[in-house]
Recover the amino acids of this structure.
């Protein structure tokens, strides 16, 4: 028996399949669904809200401790407790404080102030101590701190022009003294406050104030304006793969950049007529020398320096279509070769920054030639943000503080993959032209080292096991995969092979995934318009193969790829007259991508057979000029590369097969390497065979084996089917498919799919039968942390009957026609508005009606507050309306700071039974955090205080968490099973989801159920 486990991992799913290929049997099949570790609306980290609130609490705590510290300081220096505890505000006269503290700060320069006023001033400055950043790069234009510093410089200039002696005196003369939420036009730097303290103390000493001592001044400045240094990021840097006790180098460290340049040049080839040539050492050294003298060495620069002929290309350049109408081959080459081949970015940035302030060119050259100093300097700058720490760490280096000041704004961040020690051992071998893997071996390192441990169980993805994953989305996907793998090993034993595929979405950012989604939607829309034209030509709704022919026909400007003859629309519509051909035969390349397909006449395809285009033309004695002209005309560089490829020998074929069979992206390789290192083969001392599979191959085999198109919206079972295809994608199975392409399919173009070889006889029927029986499992959410209450705090008011209600303020862009009736001070009677704010109601309604209820457009232009009567003011009268207050229909909430906030996250729901009826009691995070046990069960459409109280007549059945499986039976005897999703506290109805999501969620009340049970579902679906 040869046992294979196939794994298909996405950002929120894991499909698995266990098969016995010798006996042609599906042993196990299933899928697991879990929540992606990100906010579904914007892709933000789930930890972001908690992190932001934690930072706010820390900031508030520091302010509080600093306030107490200054109060104690004033007591020590002769202030009475009465002076210190007095509020900072002045004497209230109407609505103006006279004098307020800003005025006191100005008057302190002109008269003797009282101890109470002195304490108020110092407390006020301590609270608003100004902006000061110790971060090295905050002068950058694109940073928030950079924007603040710009505005601070403008304010400093205004202070100087005003003639005021201190910043406090200047701000006292302004009507507005604080920043707007989105502007920094009143940003005060801390040094201005320090200067003001110095001036105030000097003046008060002149006025004879006994409290204005030099000791108090110095102590106050030291304590009020102290700031903690920024932490170094070095502790977050991972360990070196080969020198485990050492940290990885900075990405732009000189030695690391030199290593990456040599690695890249050692893999560079110049391709001429499909045949590649490696660079010799002299050519590589020439390019390395250029990298030391310019920002980057582009492919274009390399072409000129190496005198590469116009018809040749570079294997590392990406010759792809560009945006715009002009996609000529020359434009494509120009765009591709503008990109960097190699660069010494850190070296270049430091050299350019220092050449202006170094005493001489000789001094600069001497400094830049000291690679050990450069490595240490860049390490200090890359892993530290605090200026003082940088000065201290660089004190032993031959560089002045002035020179360091110039270097600090440079962007040198990033981490390499190896330590400097390992790099310096490997680099000499790279400089001799070795590939990276060979250089590693030559340096005495084992490129395939294994960890000791339990070789029958996959360990976590943590630094302890050399798999530190920090991206939460990737970590959750890999962690769930690990759990499934371990459960499968426990249930079925260690397999002979693992085949794994990870969705291309895993590892991509939220922005990139949304862009892929938008591109797909755009392509679908474009294809729809093309299909309409294709239907006219074919005289019927085009099949998938018809449509592919049509698109190739359009791309090739209606000409055969090989004969160059024009293909009439009638010829295209004839199913036997044309065929889609693999440029590089599928049997020799496993490449089924669009870039390897062209349209040709059937006769040409039969004659070409299993040859490449070059081989075909040479065998027929044809001139290659026509093929070269066609390759350029189609404006598809990837196809052009395949059309003109020469010497497609066995070595090249194996390279292409491996590329299109295996997935070599970073995340799949990370999983593969982790499994390689920790899983033991059941038969000998070797590790179990781990293979990564390419998504394009899975799609191809799905079609070839007759398993239909993937419908993600239909249900979640497709993850298991993908895993089955992945498991069955042995090298031998793929080889049989490729042989079928070569020998059978080309001879039966009328019905090519009927004869495709399957992994075993009856595979398709077995797969379709097995997929019906799978049970999709879901990760239970038992998280007991989260928000205690929502951020918005609504004010509480009481109506004329003494009934309390909540009011919230909303922006105009959030309004709808239906919400206008909830405006405070508005009552609707038979559709007509009454009350003190009826004019406001009609004003907003008129604007919404004008724009079909679309608030974002309706209120794009300012709208002004109307009079209290029915007549709105003219546009220039009355304040601009930014938002309105609405009466909410909240039935409960969390009372805080004199208002009420909506409940935060619901942790779970308690299920009770009384008199043969079921009741639900929601438990929120606030209940858990406060240690209080909720004691009421939901009563539909009632406020929480009116819900029934739980007493001894209620019996607790169980606690129900999201995604726990339940079995329900109603009075008619109908049984419903599914995963619990949520409860509506307003109605008491729960939402149940079918295990495979093949139906819409069901919602119903639980009180009248005959049976309400919870069932245990294991990781693999066992119960």
């Amino acid at each position: 028996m040869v046992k294979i486990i196939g794994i298909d991992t996405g950002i929120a799913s894991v499909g698995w399949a266990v098969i016995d290929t010798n006996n042609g049997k599906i042993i196990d099949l299933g899928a697991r669904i879990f929540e992606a570790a990100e906010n579904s609306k914007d892709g933000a980290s789930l930890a972001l809200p908690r992190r932001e609130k934690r930072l706010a609490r820390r900031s508030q705590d520091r302010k509080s401790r600093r306030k107490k510290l200054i109060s104690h300081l004033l007591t020590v220096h002769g202030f009475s407790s009465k002076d210190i505890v007095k509020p900072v505000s002045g004497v209230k006269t109407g609505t103006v404080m006279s004098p307020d503290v800003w005025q006191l700060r100005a008057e302190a320069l002109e008269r003797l102030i009282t101890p109470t006023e002195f304490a108020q001033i110092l407390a006020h400055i301590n609270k608003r101590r100004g902006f000061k950043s110790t971060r090295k790069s905050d002068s950058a234009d694109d940073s928030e701190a950079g924007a603040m510093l710009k505005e601070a410089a403008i304010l400093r200039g205004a202070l100087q022009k005003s003639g005021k002696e201190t910043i406090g005196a200047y701000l006292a003369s302004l009507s507005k003294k604080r920043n707007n939420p989105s502007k920094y036009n009143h940003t005060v730097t801390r040094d201005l406050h320090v200067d003001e303290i110095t001036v105030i103390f000097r003046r008060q000493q002149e006025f004879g104030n006994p409290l204005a001592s030099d000791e108090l001044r110095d102590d106050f400045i030291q304590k009020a304006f102290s700031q903690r240094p920024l932490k170094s990021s070095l502790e977050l840097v991972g360990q070196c793969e080969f020198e485990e006790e050492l940290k990885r180098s900075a990405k732009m460290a000189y030695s690391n950049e030199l290593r990456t340049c040599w690695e890249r040049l050692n893999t560079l080839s110049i391709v001429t007529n499909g045949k590649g040539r490696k660079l010799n050492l002299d050519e590589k050294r020439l390019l390395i020398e250029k990298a030391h003298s310019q920002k980057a060495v582009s492919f274009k620069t390399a072409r000129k320096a190496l005198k590469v002929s116009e018809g040749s290309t570079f294997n590392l350049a990406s010759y792809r279509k560009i945006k715009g109408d002009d996609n000529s081959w020359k434009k494509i080459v120009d765009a591709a070769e503008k990109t960097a081949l190699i660069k010494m970015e850190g070296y270049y940035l430091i050299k350019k920054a220092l050449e202006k302030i170094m005493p001489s060119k000789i001094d600069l050259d001497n400094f830049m030639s000291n690679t050990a100093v450069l490595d240490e300097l860049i390490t200090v700058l890359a892993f530290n943000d605090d200026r003082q720490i940088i000065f201290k760490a660089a004190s032993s280096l031959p560089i002045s503080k002035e020179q360091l000041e110039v270097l600090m704004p440079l962007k040198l961040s990033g981490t390499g993959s190896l330590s400097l020690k390992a790099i310096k051992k490997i680099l000499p071998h790279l400089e001799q032209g070795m590939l990276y893997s060979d250089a590693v071996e030559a340096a005495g390192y084992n490129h395939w080292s294994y960890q000791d441990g339990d070789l029958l169980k996959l360990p976590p993805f943590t630094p302890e096991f050399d798999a530190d994953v920090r991206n939460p989305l990737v970590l959750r996907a890999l962690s769930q995969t690990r759990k499934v793998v371990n459960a499968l090993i426990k249930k079925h034993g260690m397999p002979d092979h693992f085949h794994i595929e990870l969705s291309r979405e895993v590892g991509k950012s939220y922005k990139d995934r949304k862009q892929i989604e938008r591109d797909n939607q755009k392509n679908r829309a474009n294809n729809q318009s093309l299909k309409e034209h294709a239907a006219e030509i074919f005289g019927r709704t085009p099949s998938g193969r018809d449509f592919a022919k049509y698109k190739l026909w359009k791309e090739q400007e209606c000409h055969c790829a090989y004969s160059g003859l024009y293909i009439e629309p009638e010829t295209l519509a004839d199913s036997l007259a044309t065929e889609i051909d693999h440029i590089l035969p599928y049997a020799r390349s496993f490449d089924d991508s669009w870039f390897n397909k062209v349209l040709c006449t059937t006769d040409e395809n039969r004659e070409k057979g299993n040859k490449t285009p070059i081989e075909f033309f040479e065998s027929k004695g044809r001139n290659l000029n026509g093929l070269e002209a066609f390759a350029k005309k189609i404006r598809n560089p990837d196809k052009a590369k395949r059309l003109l490829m020469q010497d497609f020998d066995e070595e090249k074929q194996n390279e292409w097969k491996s590329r299109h069979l295996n997935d070599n992206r970073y995340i799949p390789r990370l999983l593969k390497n982790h499994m390689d290192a920790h899983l033991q083969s059941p038969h000998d001392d070797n590790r179990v065979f781990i293979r990564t599979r390419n998504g394009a191959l899975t799609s191809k085999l799905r079609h070839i084996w007759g398993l239909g198109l993937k419908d993600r919206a239909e249900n979640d079972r497709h993850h298991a089917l993908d895993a089955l295809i992945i498991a069955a994608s042995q090298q031998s199975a793929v080889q049989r498919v490729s042989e079928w392409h070569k020998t059978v399919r080309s001879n039966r173009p009328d019905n090519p799919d009927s004869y495709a070889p399957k992994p075993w006889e009856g595979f398709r029927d077995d797969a379709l039968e097995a997929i019906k029986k799978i049970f999709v499992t879901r990760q239970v959410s038992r998280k007991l942390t989260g928000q205690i209450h929502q951020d918005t705090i609504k004010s509480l008011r009481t109506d004329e009957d003494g009934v309390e209600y909540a009011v919230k303020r909303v922006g105009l862009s959030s309004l709808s026609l239906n919400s206008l009736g909830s405006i405070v001070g508005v009552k609707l009677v038979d559709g007509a508005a009454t009350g003190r704010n009826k004019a406001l109601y009609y004003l907003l309604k008129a604007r919404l009606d004008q724009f079909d209820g679309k608030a974002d457009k309706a209120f794009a232009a300012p709208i002004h507050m109307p009079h209290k009567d029915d007549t709105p003011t003219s546009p220039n009268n009355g304040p601009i309306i930014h938002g309105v207050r609405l009466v909410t229909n909240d039935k409960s909430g969390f009372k805080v700071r004199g208002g009420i906030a909506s409940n935060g996250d619901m942790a779970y729901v308690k299920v009770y039974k009384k008199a043969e009826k079921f009741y639900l009691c929601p438990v929120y995070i606030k209940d858990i955090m406060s240690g209080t046990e909720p004691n009421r069960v939901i009563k539909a459409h009632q406020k929480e205080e009116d819900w029934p109280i739980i007493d001894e007549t209620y019996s607790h059945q169980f606690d129900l968490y999201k995604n726990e499986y339940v079995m329900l039976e109603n009075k008619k005897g109908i049984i419903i099973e599914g995963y619990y999703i949520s409860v509506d506290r307003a109605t008491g109805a729960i939402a149940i989801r079918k295990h495979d999501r093949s139906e819409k969620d069901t919602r119903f009340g639980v009180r009248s159920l005959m049976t309400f049970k919870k069932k245990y579902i294991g990781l693999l679906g066992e119960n």
